[in-house]
UniProtKB/TrEMBL annotation:
Protein name, UniProt field: Alpha-galactosidase
Domain named Glycosyl hydrolase family 36 C-terminal: residues: 636-714
Domain (Glycosyl hydrolase family 36 N-terminal) ranges: 85-276
Originating species: Micromonospora coerulea
Highest taxon of source: Bacteria
Amino acid sequence: MSDPATGNIYERAAARNATDAGEDTAPLAGPWTLRGVATEYTVVVPAHGRWLELVSWGPPGVAHGPSPASYTGPTPFLTAGDFAPVEYATDAVRPFTGADLVVETATGDRRISWRYQQAETDGGQLRVTFADPVTGLRAAHCYRIPAGTDVVERWVELTNTGDAPLRLARAGSAGFCVPTPHGARLSYQWGQWAQEFQLAHLDLGHGQFSIGSSQGVPGHSFVPWLAVQDRAEPDGPTWGVALAWTGSWQIVAEPDTGGLTRVRVGRRLVDGGLELPAGGGITLPVVAGAHSDAGLAGLARAWHRYQRQLAGDRLHRARPVLYNSWEATEFAVDADNQLALARIAAELGVETFVVDDGWFIGRHDDRGGLGDWTPDPVKFPAGFDAFIAQIRALDLTFGLWVEPESISPASRLYAEHPDWVYAIDDRPITPIRNQYLLDLGRPEAAEFVHSTLDGLLGRHDIGYLKWDFNRPRTEPGRPGAATRLDLDGAHVANLHRIYAALRRDHPHVTIEACAAGGARTDLAMAAHADVFWPSDNTGPLDRLAIQHGFLHANAPHLLSSWVTDAVGLFDQRPRSLAFRFVLAMAGVLGIGADIRHWTPRQRAEAASWIGRYKQIREVITHGEVHLIGGPDQPRCAVQYTAPDGDTVVVLAWHTGRLDGNGLLPSRPVRLPLRGLATDDTWRHGDDTYSGSHLTAVGLPVRWTADHDAELFVLHRA
């Protein structure tokens, strides 16, 4: 971080703002520059001291020149703040074009106004504080770029130093300003259950674009992630934002008429405004902003590097090849059928065996059992620990499915604690999947969830936990509560606390985050969980599209993918077992098929693929990812380049019709690789290629009706 003299690169923008405010032309404080690997982010406090303002955000050195974000024209019918690249705006600063923070006093008055107080830089973190002289509200704007990344983390710490309570009617975490002189091109991910992470693009010349969730969970409909580009340069500079919040959220993008697109990111306050008593404080969720000069693919790599940093030391544990029993037995779990599956899985080379839903008392279908987390003695007549010991004797780690935040109306827990469920006094409760939702913000409910999971992991030899969440919140109430509560915030805070406690006390356990598929994949969960379950849809071509979108926002170490026998819900064209294995190798390999019915030939093929995956999984986990084409294009592949640059893994799939391939004259499909030195030589089997050939022409692959996927491993000669 740097803090240079204030009278140079910012003079034009500072002069404009100072003129509008009727003050001196020199900036009041800053500029400050935060630097990443290939990115810098520069902010300054203009002379009037009413807000913090962006100077530039882009590659190193971008601040050395007139600010691309500044606006020097007139603002008829608007204020200077409505056009300025404000970092965090109250409704007094941006009264017409959208504020990040809206605060009400006890009398209902709004229009909080900032005055600059001080700035602190410590250990690479910038903290710039403003205060409202009328109410005493203080806001610390905090910034940090973690080492080795190109992602700027931003958050705001609010403190009420006044004598009266305040109410936050809107409490966004950040506003990001992106220069889009030719109009904005937005990329986002939409979806629904079984069709998550669908990548889409939108040209936004005017108006407002908004995505979010009101479900108390990030949700299937949209991912809390957005990319912004100038419409004239779709493969050039790209900016992205993502939110570290596992509750309700909103992202709003709106271009102004001067060529700047402002993106507001933060919580959606579905429970009403947040109460901030006198002397109270609140820290708003972290928002991360990423930049790349290499389009969406480059932006994806920036997110991957960041999420690997979030994983910390856990990244260096090999993700085990797992088997999950759900699609084979569903609720009909018993010791005999699970052991039969485990024996076959061990023969195939699987390393972890996960017993899914149906292992506990009262759980014969989705109408009972949730909340009563005791192994069913009828299903495990020799005892649960004896069963686990038999799994472990096969040299398999044992894993278990749980859904600890949900409760069945027929459970003993609900009979004893009906008040632990989200409900509104005198209103019926809406069941989803025949279950209710525990109010995790209630301390006794949170303690029950933590003690249940801590007890299971402490009593039994469990090395893998699949934490599911199969319904959103419907009734936003807590019976008997005397005041308005931030239920969403309390639920998320306790969820994260429980994850952190389990991580601390059971560091050997791998935790998979699932929410009816991919409804909980925000950055906060990426820091707490080891792996995500991105979708309940395991059909091959459907899953290809899901994983293509997922890898734009998430690193491969977070992608759990299974080989199953399922057909797609949306694209039911058949694909080979090889296709399914190569697809599942794109992240963390798993199997979910009923392998009892696989033929000896299928089992032998599966064992071969698992062996090959174990040879490359470190490259998958740690390698630099390049997305080639896509599921709706003639070529579709993912390239992983090892950190030392000596190995390249390419997973490729045929996405078109298979009939007729190989029967008529044709040339092979070419997969152009990325990031290779042109003068290097690469080997694949008996074939040798130059780096120039692989990047300019591409790796050849010939599809046939019997060959619809391929794994390439290239070594630098």
